[in-house]
Amino acid sequence: MPESSSAADAAAINALRSSVMRLSRRLKHQRVDESLSPTEMSVLGTLARCGSATPGELARKEHVQPPSMTRIVAMLEAKGLVRLEPHPDDRRQKVVRQTERAESMLEESRRRRNAWLAELAGGLDDEEWAALRAAAPVLEKLAQL
């Protein structure tokens, strides 16, 4: 918050936290494959956004310990959603790549979640839509910090 934060700023932060958490929980119920954990879905999303990566790189991006990522990658590989390939520069390492099945599943998941959000947002008036369009880049920036 800015140095001269006020009670109104604190209330806005509280409302943002609460609403983002509730919306996130509701979005999680729109999953395509219920057999995947939220962490597994997050790893697949990271691979979709950032491309292939070593398990160590994925662990850093996902903020988990490397042994945990090794287990997650093994579960995703067993489900046919990622494959491990030799690292081009380091024979000791592997590179994790998502499979076409994972890409299709993520696309369907995005489609379903976007449709759900669009239906929900259909209840907004023009002024609220304008506020949402203006807030979206700010929320994206917060998510990246």
Topology:
Blueprint: H1 7-28, H2 38-50, H3 55-62, H4 66-78, E1 82-86, E2 94-98, H5 100-121, H6 126-144
Antiparallel strand pairs: 1-2
Helix pairs in contact: 3-4
Q: Could you spell the SSE succession in H and E letters?
A: HHHHEEHH
Record the strand order, biggest sheet. 1-2
Q: Tell me the structural class.
A: mainly alpha
What is the multimeric organization of the chains shown? single chain
Strand content: 5-15%
Please state the overall shape, judged from the principal axes of the Cα atoms: globular
Q: Main β-sheet, in a few words?
A: 2 strands, antiparallel
- Mean pLDDT, to the nearest integer, reads 90
**Radius of gyration over all CA atoms, rounded:** 19 Å
Tell me the helix content: 55-70%
Distance between the termini: 14 Å
Q: What's the count of strands?
A: 2
Low-pLDDT runs: none
Number of helical segments? 6
Fold and architecture overview:
This protein is mostly helical and 145 residues long. 67% of the residues lie in helices and 7% in strands. It is built from six helices and two strands, in the order H-H-H-H-E-E-H-H. The chain has helices at 7-28, 38-50, 55-62, 66-78, 100-121, 126-144; strands at residues 82-86, 94-98. A two-stranded antiparallel ribbon has the order 1-2. Helix 3 crosses helix 4. The two termini are 14 Å apart. The mean pLDDT is 90.
